[in-house]
Amino acid sequence: MKRSLFCLILVHIMITCFSPMVLAQENKAIAVFIDDLPVVFDTEPTIQNGRILVPFRAIAEALGVQVDWDGDTKTVNATDGKINVRLQIGDKTAYCNNTPVSLDVSPIISSGRTLIPLRFFSEAYNCKVDWDGVNRTAKIFSPPKEMSVTGFYALGDSRTSSWTDLFGIPYPETTVGNTDVVNQLSLGWYSIDKDGKLLTESRTGWQRPDGWEDVLKAASKYQMATEMTIHATDGDGTLTSLLNNDTAILTAVSNIIEEASMYHGINLDFEGLGFKDVGEQLLATQSAFNRFVQLLAEQAHNLGLKLTLTLHAPNSVYKGYDYKALAGYADRIIIMAYDYGTKPEPSDLVIQAVEQSLKYVPKEKLVLGISVPNENPDSLVSKVGIAKRYRLEGIALWRLGLLTDEMWGTLKATVKVKENSEN
């Protein structure tokens, strides 16, 4: 009798204590992430018969899939150019490239929005889907996406050697190593002074190493394009002096063009412009940089060389970059969307930088710069995910020599590297 009474009391306590928790859990909103980035819906996802249903347009756009809604037949048509999916409201048969697929739950209309089965739609486009029932969170990981991957190649010590990190073995030997994840090298070997003299040794540490010719030969062997990178900062006014001196500008452009004949292109990395400038002074700084870039671009393009600009992000403190004008001169723009003050870099600020850049730069020209020291293998998923979601030309890694094996693994799982048309 006492045991029965005890059991009844225990059951009562469990019902009283845990029922609200279960109810709260069931009422918790469903969160959906693609490549560790949240997907925002205007209608809440729901669960029916154990299957998650989500608004089709938001999930499709986040995956880079084009969708059309036929209101007459209440049909969703989706395609990424290779895979075509068709679903109809109330129909448990979907079609993937015209092959019928049975669904556990049919698409529905809720609050005026069409909701489709999340797992079926995602897996149709070769995504991996994980469901965390406790936290009511769905995580989708998209397949590797084709894009360019630029690696900044600069000096390091024996522990952070760009050569060893890239080729998988100490200099001067080579193996494939990680060259299958990089299709372009930005060789950080140059700086410039206020008179336009090209420097292969600079006070900022950028210099051309002994055996630099071996790097060019190895890059060619593994089908990687190369560009000479000219790095300078305006902390001491070097760039301001250069950009406001017509003779120095002509000298600088001439020296760069002469050296660039050994490479496939030029990467101009002039940092620190416009830090304290406002009003007319800021416009003057932007205009001076525009003139330099325009002249360099004309000379480079005449020789069949491509010009890349590595720029501070629009939401940084450096405002000396007129993205609209520069996008017209450059073949690519790498935005340094990092150094926001926390590690890993906050995805919301990186996204803000991308969205502000895309107001002026076509996505086919925009490259997301990633600061490797500020990331880890997991956070790298979301940074690559941003490049995927916004269909950017690619990513740029600062720098080779700092990536861990786990980071290379992340890249190999998320990126399909573009083949270079020529080397």
TrEMBL record:
Residues 153-414 form the GH18 domain. Keywords: Hydrolase, Signal. InterPro entries: Chitinase_II/V-like_cat (IPR011583), Cu_amine_oxidase-like_N (IPR012854), GH (IPR017853), Glyco_hydro18_cat (IPR001223), Mao_N_sf (IPR036582). One of its GO terms (biological process) is carbohydrate metabolic process. It comes from the Bacteria. This is Putative glycosyl hydrolase. GO terms for molecular function: chitin binding; hydrolase activity. Residues 1-24 form the signal peptide.
